[in-house]
Amino acid sequence: MHTTTANQSETVLAPREVERLITGKATSDGAGVKLTRVLTHDLQHRLDPFLMLDAFGTDNPQDYIGGFPDHPHRGFETVTYMIAGRMRHRDSAGNEGLLQNGSVQWMTAGRGVIHSELPEQEDGRMEGFQLWLNLPAAEKMRAPWYRDIRNEEIPEYASDDGVTVRVIAGESHGVAGAVQRETTLPLYLDLHFDAAAEFAQALPVSFNAFVYVYRGNLRIGETDIPQQRMAILRNQPNSDGVVLQGMEGTRALLIAGLPLNEPIVQYGPFVMNTEQQIFQAVEDFRAGRF
Ligand code: MN
Hints:
The chain is mainly beta. The protein has one helix and 27 strands. The termini are far apart.
């Protein structure tokens, strides 16, 4: 584990409140993989630059064994975070990787990739998340990019209060995350509370931000957030961050980023700015140009 100490504490004087709580929608995708869509289509503008968050977690192989056979993407990035289980990734750009316990796969689809994500286990627990991060208009047709980030490559620190913070993207308490992105400046933290504790994170007012609790429960200001709920944080003028109060065993994702404020047109796995660009994506895919 790449553990470091925070070299800066973050003082939050005017914390954001919770705007509303969201219960994910049970659905299935790929070849019958059961999952919970936490960030749904109707929240894409509210949570710009994030387009989707899926949570999956099951001990039943029937819920995941089909995996996600070959399918395309264009116009955004996918960030897959595995908490438990093993998935094999293969794509049309020639990349291959094994995603397992605590590792992250960051894939920039750009102008297009076709990939598969298939379980490499026949029993046991499969648990994790897939976040979709939009690309600015000027980068939607950039070359695809891919990185596997092993568990031990994810920077991790213990806060003064003893909260273990895994910094997947962005920066927290002076610790730089595994991935940095210009334009959308995503912050992606996985927080583990070993005991009741408070955790403060600075957030620019302009950032859209949300928290997803996947173990235990959490309190933000006056709001209790039970397990498997997403809390959208209000963009209060003059606020400077968020303060989370976790219990023993609480685990939560804190995700934030700078909105693009560009038109969003989605057709399944293609997310562009105009309908014309979507027609083009479908045509390019059918013509084998991915
Ligand atoms: Mn995919």
